[in-house]
Amino acid sequence: MDRRTLLGTLAAGAAATALKADDKDKKGAPMPMANANADYAARPFDFGAGLNGLSKDLLAEHLTLYKGYVTRTNALLKDVVAAEKEGKAGAMVQELRRRLGFEFSGMRVHEWYFEALGNNGGKPTENHPLHKGIVDTWGTWDAWWAAFKATATMPGIGWAALVKDPMTGRLMNAWFQDHENAIPVGAQPILVLDVWEHAYVKDFGATGRGKYVDAIKPLINWSVVEKRY
C-alpha cells in the first residue's frame, strides 16, 4: 500500500469513527462542556401541570431542591479549587471535599431521575437487550420489578437503582445511601428512583413510599432508560 492510499484509508477510518460518535450523541449521550471548568447549569426539566399520579406542587418543590444541588455544587467546586491552588489541605478543605461528593451526586442522580420521567412512559421494549438482561438475571420482568420495589422501600434515605457492571454486563439492584454512599464502584446507573421523603410525602404522606413507587412505574420513559444500557 503506497503512502497516499494509506493516508486515505486512515482518513476514512477517522471519519467513520467521528460519525459513530456523532450518532451516539444524537441518541442522547451527554456532550462534554466546551469549557470543562464552567459552572454547571440546572437542566430545564418542565413537568407543566404535573404528571399522572404526581402533583404539580410536589414536582415544583422537587425541581427547586434539585436546583439547590446545582448551586451548591458550583460554590463548593470554587471553594475547593481555590483552597487547593493556595496549597491548603486542612480539615476545612477535607470537609469541603466530602460535602462536594454529596452535593454533586445529588445533582447528577436527580438529573438521571427527572430525564426518565414522563406521561409517555409506557412499557419497556421486549426485544431490547436490557429486557433480555433483566429476564436472564431475575427470570421474569415481574420478578425484577418486585425486587426493585423492595429495594426502593428499604428503610433509609436514598435511591433505588438498577445498575450495570460495564466490565461484565451484570445487572444488579442497588441502594444509594443519601446520594453518594453504598454505590457499587464503577457501576453504570440504568434506572434511578428517588426515595427521599421530599419525593413523595406531599402526595402520599410519610408512610406512602410504596404507593409512590407504584405511581412512578407507568411514568418511566423506557426509551431513555434503554439508551443508558
Count of helix runs: 8
Look at the structure and name the CATH superfamily of the largest domain: Iron/manganese superoxide dismutase, C-terminal domain
What can be said about the biggest beta sheet? 3 strands, antiparallel
- Please tell me how large the radius of gyration is: 21 Å
Mean pLDDT: 88
Strand order, sheet with most strands = 4-3-5
CATH topology of the largest domain: minor pseudopilin epsh fold
Residue fraction in strands: 5-15%
Q: What portion of residues is helical? A: 40-55%
Assign the structural class, choosing from mainly alpha, mainly beta, alpha/beta, alpha+beta, or little secondary structure.
mainly alpha
CATH architecture assignment of the largest domain: 3-Layer(bab) Sandwich
Low-confidence stretches: 1-29
Total strand segments? 5
Which sequence of SSEs, written as H and E, runs from N to C?
HEEHHHHEEEHHH
